[in-house]
Amino acid sequence: MPDGTVTDEHEAFEADFSEYLEKSLPAERAREVDAHLQSCDRCRAEYARFRDTVGMISGLDRVPAPTRFEREVEATIHRRSAGRFFGRRAFGDRVPFELLAAIGLLLVVAVVLLLRWSPTGTVHDPLSPSPSTEPRPDVKKSLPTP
Amino acid sequence: MTFRERLLLRRLRERDERAFRDLVEAYQDRVFNLIFRMIGVREEAEDLAQEVFVTTFKTIDQFRGDSKLSTWLYRVAVNHCKNRIKYLARRHDRKTGVLDEAAEREAAALGDGPIGAGQIPRPDLAVEGAQRDLLVQRAIAELDEDHRVVVVLRDIEDLSYEEIGAITGLPEGTVKSRLHRARLALKQKLAKHM
Q1: ipTM above 0.85 for this complex
Q2: What phi and psi, each to the nearest 5 degrees, are found at residue A50?
Q3: Taking the complete model, does pTM exceed 0.90, yes or no?
Q4: How far is B136 from chain A (nearest CA, A)?
């Protein structure tokens, strides 16, 4: 049966396992632990199990939040506060300025392209008679003579 | 606290809905993982993680900004976890088997079917993959909440002792000694499966 002093010595080394594993022990103490682990089968085996245990814990897979999580939290807040939880939305939040600006830009580009492709530089078809150049019907001639 | 965090905090205090979404998006996985590893049951973790964000947003005015936003969020999460662990323990006392059933469902969800402590069909394979994770998870769940917190924050969330001290309100020396005791206890619990 091991005497108390020897057991205490093993326990003293075991007490330093965490810091030894994390390499945060003072250099001199780390050398003592090194030397003890070289010479003590029991502590070497215990340390190996300790290191493996910590490795198993830190090796656990990370579990992400469910995909619907964000929506559910928001819905919970809205439900509990009857929609009064969040601040009143500013005008800029309610009107989709980014979308309106993009649509406006597309319209400008479309008009510019239309003008560029047109040979006359206008949006009118040059082959179709212009309403201004078409001869007006003679109103007097068409009237029945009394 | 970084400049970006200060901006986010200001928007949160203004009850900006988009700031809230940014906060949830940035921290939901970390908070959920912490809670899941603390509680060990997915349904409970989902419910609790929601409560953490609701509480965070409701009490954002109480946050003085003297620590990182993530530290504060973790603190809220840890406090909720501790309360829930106590509540579940009481419920478990009254209604034995509820948590065990939930844990079995968790095991089934991992794809390996239910296993019970001491009835592992292939001990040589038990330390691999999902079963190994389940064994570790169960061993963690057997720790008392004070030891569970430090081991989850340090060995799973990989936080510094300083951050853990800020979250738990414990001196660094106490964090280290609790962590060491928790690791020794886990070694003991997992020894038969190694």
Answers
A1: no
A2: -60, -50
A3: no
A4: 7
